[in-house]
Write a structure and sequence with these properties.
Layout: H1 8-25, E1 44-51, E2 54-55, E3 57-60, E4 72-73, E5 76-78, H2 85-97, E6 102-112, E7 117-125, E8 138-142, E9 150-151, E10 155-157, E11 166-167, H3 168-184
Parallel strand pairs: 1-7
Antiparallel strand pairs: 1-2, 1-5, 3-4, 3-8, 6-7, 9-10, 10-11
Helix pairs in contact: 1-3
């Protein structure tokens, strides 16, 4: 079965409904997603790591030419030639924070609104106690409890982030995951 995905632009609600339905039916989370993204080749990959109720969030290092410099995000980066998106997600996570993610499934392909780029997001588990900062790429690593994230409707805030917030593409990816577990597993209370 090939991985199909959904874009958060045109089919946000259909994507969330599909994730919920997939969990309820026991089928793959990516099976039968939005056909408008079928065949879209991701240029980058990120990994949403959950470890004992905590989520791994990075603050990107300040780098010239990086449109997301200094922002909060998920470990990840560009896919190299000959590399699958899941291989890129694992490689980038190891490079940036030293965590080996155990990928469970794809959350889908998302389009960054600020810089038209297709990004495949994966859900994974991993040991966040091993997190370390690669200062060339990451300024800080945060591992807040998932249920401590306060949703402002377009961003997540948490005291440990100080003045920063999870917004944009990262917000949509985290929101997709949280909505799926809220509805199906009632994990987040």
């Amino acid at each position: 079965m090939s991985i199909q995905s959904c874009t958060m632009r045109a089919s946000y609600h259909r994507c969330r409904a599909h994730i919920t339905e997939s969990y309820l039916n026991g089928s793959s989370i990516t099976e039968g997603m939005d056909p408008t993204m079928k065949g879209v080749k991701p240029e980058a990959a990120v990994v949403l790591i959950v470890d004992n109720g905590r989520i791994v969030i990075i603050k990107r290092a300040d780098r010239a030419g990086d449109p997301w410099t200094g922002q909060l995000g998920l470990p990840g980066g560009h896919i190299k030639a000959g590399e699958s998106s899941s291989e890129a997600a694992v490689r980038e996570c190891l490079e940036e924070v030293g965590i080996e993610p155990h990928i469970e499934y794809s959350l889908g392909v998302f389009i960054s609104h600020s810089r038209e780029i297709a990004v495949e997001a994966f859900f994974a588990t991993g040991n966040s106690e091993n997190a370390r900062v690669n200062s060339a790429e990451v300024k800080a690593v945060f591992t807040p409890l998932i249920n401590s994230l306060a949703d402002k409707g377009d961003a997540y805030v948490q005291p440990v982030f100080e003045n920063d917030q999870i917004w944009g593409l990262t917000y949509r990816i985290v929101n997709t995951y949280l909505n799926s577990i809220d509805r199906v597993k009632n994990v987040r209370k």
